[in-house]
Amino acid sequence: MTRDLLSSQSDLHTSCHISQSVPERILQIGEGVFLRGFADWLIDRVNAAGHVGGRIVIAAPRPSGARNIECFRKQDGLYTVLLRGIEDGVTVDRQEIVSSVSRAIDPHNEWPDFLACARQREIDVVISNTTELGIQYVPQAYVAGQVQQTYPAKLAAYLYERYQAFAGDPQAGMTVLPCELIDDNGARLRDIVIRHSEDWALPEAFVEWLKSYNVFCNTLVDRIVTPFAPDADGAPQLPYADQLAVVAEPFHMWAIEGGDHLQTRWPFAELGLSVYFVPRIEDYRLQKVRVLNGAHTAMACLGLLAQKQTVLDVMSHPVFQAFVEELIWSEIVPIVGSQVGDSEVLERFARDVIDRFRNPFLHHALTSIAANSLAKARIRLVPTIVEYAACRGASPPLAAAAIAMLCYACYPSHEQMGIEDPLRVRLAEIWRNDLDADASGTVTALLQASDVWGCDLAALPGLPGMVQEVIRLARERGVVEAIAEWLHVNPASETARR
Per the database record, which ranges form the Mannitol dehydrogenase C-terminal domain (predicted)? Predict the structure, then answer.
């Protein structure tokens, strides 16, 4: 994969002829799989549409990134994104060549080249993904001309270089968009950068410039991106070698808190791209946690108890598919919808989640989702149940069935399922105290384990009886028939169906 190859292959779709004339506007800290299939792809879409979104200078945050940096150089910054999945109910399987990357730098061997980017006025945006562990405070000395150890320290040194190059010009401030999956990622990164600056006794005027004229946005990202494995079963064959190719689902979402000034440069909305510049990203975090993660947690133990292996296995079973979809539309979306500002965005997200669950190219293991499932349920599922009961005076029957399956998965005879969850021991011990009874007392004790659930679920109206009945059905008829019967007894309203 090189520009010469593309020039000789007219049938290869690419926006290279457009991107080459676009100036460098973005420094990206992180050369890994996710950003290649997410931010770099999005910026390439903007450039290809004729807008000056900017080209990207990529820098590795760690020495281990040197291999990818070399691959970018060998491939002239080009690589392939294979979009594979379901979008609006239609199967998508296509390849796109991304040309938004202009060059790549290894700061650990090319620190002066990295700092030189700070002296390019037009490079005024930083995008990063250094994993959740990348945004941490690690004390370290500052020595001019020497590379810093961590990402926040590198950024502090970079911004100090920029401050000096432009004599503290307020117009030289930067916008920082961290994509690391931690809450308040922008605010936390800003605090650490300021702390390093103060540790190093850099001029107070610089620290004031840093605080006043640089914008650190909190963001939330969502897309599954994996390395391309050309030898995998069913993998398409590329007509060229590509060491940087990635596979991405069609779905993508980037919520950016603030950053309104970027909308003119990056008109994502008019291009049909799911990037949102919003005053607060809490609505987007809430819908992701409750709809996507909540449905995942609800299906994981249910599927494993029925010997299913993946999310696709669950969604390929008519009973379980109906259960998951009705749980989302009848119980989760109405409760989340009362708390978010844009119901249309929420409903679109819910439809996209169901498409994502049905992705035939993605094999998302239920054992992975079920790991620490009780702790996850406390955040992802229990709040919906509590809020539903508070609003309607009754507990949600399908979410109750999900809780029943979480409890039933802790039954001692189910230990062979291999679910890794330290809280499982707590519920298994309650089961051992009452193995042969009708389970009514046991269910109450299970739901009263507030150290597991975060509250006393047994106090919610009707929930103990629902959980007890679902467990009884599962023990007598098996999980599939139990859920089928429960859906029959508790049909979704027509308005809840989509």
Answer: 281-467
